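[job 4471] stage=fold_predict status=RUNNING
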Amino acid sequence: MGRKRYTPEQIIRVLRQSEVLSFEGRNLSEICREIGVTVNTYYRWRKQYGGMQVNAQQVYIMDYYHK
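[job 4471] inference complete, writing structure tokens
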């Protein structure tokens, strides 16, 4: 069974969902379990996609598909 690959849109959606769960008071291990990724993956995604504004996300996504 192969591993699941996430598109940039899915990653951004998951990060937003994790922010909501964080504001609800859940800890990181619970958040990662609920969204279905490891803690390392969460931190890697947050480093790569977390600080982007909406415009930057759209440009990054366009670059991703036009490689």
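[job 4471] summary: The helical segments are 8-23, 28-35, 39-49, 54-65.
[job 4471] exit 0
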